[in-house]
Amino acid sequence: MFDTANWYRSGVDPVRYSYSELNTLASNIADTMYSQAPKLPNELLNRKKPSSNAVAAQKALLKLMVQHEGEPRLSIRGFPAEGGLLESLLLKTDLYRFLPKRGWQFLTPSKRHDPCGLLPAWKAVTEILKNNSHRTVSLAEIFTIWQQPPYGIKNGLLPILAVAFLLAQRDKLAFYRDGIFQARFTDLDVDYLTNDPSSIQFRWMDLSFLSRKFLSGLAKIVCELDNQNSLVHLEPIDVARGLVGIFENLRPWVKRTSRLSASALQVRSIFKSASDPNKFLFDDIPGIFGEIDAKEPELNIEQVINCVREGLFELIQAYSHMLDRLQQMMLMELQVPNTSPQAYGELRDRAENIIQLTGDFRLNAFIGRLSQFNGSEMDIEGIASLAANKPPRDWVDADLDQAGIEIADLAQRFIRAEAYARVKGRPDKRQAMAVVIGMDGRPTPVTGEFTITDTERVAVDDIVAKVEQALSSTDQHGRNIILAALAEMSARYLNDDIEGQISKMVAKKVG
Predict the structure, then answer these.
(1) How many helices (H) and strands (E) does the chain have?
(2) Average pLDDT over every residue of 391-397
(3) Domain ranges of the chain
(4) How confident is the model over 291-303, as pLDDT tens digits?
(5) Pairwise CA distance, residues 43 & 81, whole Å
(6) CA–CA separation, 65 vs 189, rounded Å?
(7) ∠ CA(448), CA(452), CA(453), 5° rounding?
(8) pLDDT reading at 45 higher than 90
(9) Helix, strand, coil percentages in the chain from 3-state DSSP, rounded to 5
(10) Do 323 and 381 touch, CB atoms closer than 8 A?
């Protein structure tokens, strides 16, 4: 039938072809239609429907590309099926090659390194991504471009070329799985790619000079606030990953509290919704501080960077500052004079002296924690958890309000327990005293209750000795006169203390 058929072509009279002439014609037509098809002589995958064994080798090579980049032959030993694919599709094409100063890596085809003609297909996809930089482009779209003329790449080759394309241009490509930004391409994504190419998307991230300057400023923030991240590569994905990493390491309470400045709250809201590094860095962050002024863009960029730095720094410090406030309040209620190691040691001794004294399980738990207290963040965090009846990961602002009141109450009960340590035959680490003075016809006597510690007792004895010396050096007075003088002095100090407390309360209410 072929030998006797008339063949019709546009603009040419019908003609009969021999078998060899027909093959030549078909080849010429294919060369015209697929003029930019790469030459990839691999009979396992260079077909529309590879065999199951070929598909298994394909997937094995894809995972090795992701897991062992930088190693010679991707760590393949011998010549298994995936080793043959490596030789013909990656090594002979120069997609994976060795550079003297950089080692083995995936590279983009160039005029000097394109033995198999992959450059036109590479350029076509790059152009599509650049023209659609405002959105993500799925691998299904890219595969359609590569399958159609003038490229005509077969289905079996597409996944390997796509992963090589991503790894070679990762500095300009953001990678997404089902529309969600991913920090890097993993072996899990290989399964997604081979099962459904539309589930994997790319987005081009080409940056202008101002964008690079902005990126550089944000990179400095990452290096300043995260000592473990040197951020060697100034790429949007790396900078976005560094910034989001700082936010993710914040304590859960910081991500919920409303007790932050307006700027810090704005920064936090942007970080919470971060999903696309390009949009996050160049749209969302500048957007919360207003549009960049075209007349003075560099000045505006510096202002935005400073706002982000200050907001993040406040978020990082918020948890420690909150615990510091709780600790200072607790130490004041416990009448600990300062935060020196000696003061903490005295507090631990006081707590050891009244452990299991009261029969109150909650107070005993508080005392037990104080017996190990050395001023660390973990110590005050444990006490706050006891007071709030919640672990730190579940704290909200109301829990900390409750914790503050409960800590103050426990501290007062702690002090009362100290005054009765002798009940169980323990030494008094504190001594409770009271003074009641009625004088000058006042309707209400002046009263005062206070406690002193063992270390303060030394100072008390010293003052008593000085007073006795002063009294003995003067003319001898009667007992009543000396007692009256002491009462007068006590009343003055008690009045000063009461007035001072009232002033503090008024100032706190006004503040």
Answers:
(1) 19, 10
(2) 93
(3) 1-33, 52-204, 209-320, 334-424, 430-510
(4) 444 445 566 778 8
(5) 12
(6) 12
(7) 165
(8) yes
(9) 60, 10, 30
(10) yes
